[in-house]
Amino acid sequence: MALLCKLSLWLNRIYLTVAMVLLGVLLAASSVQIFSRYFFNVSQSWTEEVARYCFIWSSLLGAVVLTKNGGHAVVDFMVKKLRGGWKTAHRFLLCAIIFAIGVVFIHRGFGLMGITAMQKSPSLKIPLMYIYLAMPMCGIGVCLHMLCEAAELLFPKQPAEPAK
Q: Does residue 157 carry a pLDDT above 90?
């Protein structure tokens, strides 16, 4: 369990770093597009693609980070009333549901990658399968985080005994 959770934390740091870099690239590409449009009256088509693809990747990687940090949207007015075993059972059920969604992302993402393997983007000419790779990467991250959370629910850490 400790190894699984360490892997989950390590992957979360990588996803967060990549998502932040991609948001910076998105901002730069959008700035280039705005600058060239207003000052040179020329529209750069590649900047729109870069911004779009960075947005897709950063959104999905950001969703994984939010899942790990518990920042996803919740309606918790009833959950706050749960106590003890009911609260643990509820959290475990949520882990199972989110894990299942992650599996769907993995399955469907690899399917889309296969379909788009030979298609290239109009301006950048990169295979679209690299864009759709974001889906299985998101699914893998979500599944790993949910396995870690479920393991922590099933096997809670025991407080260390005080030294005598």
A: no
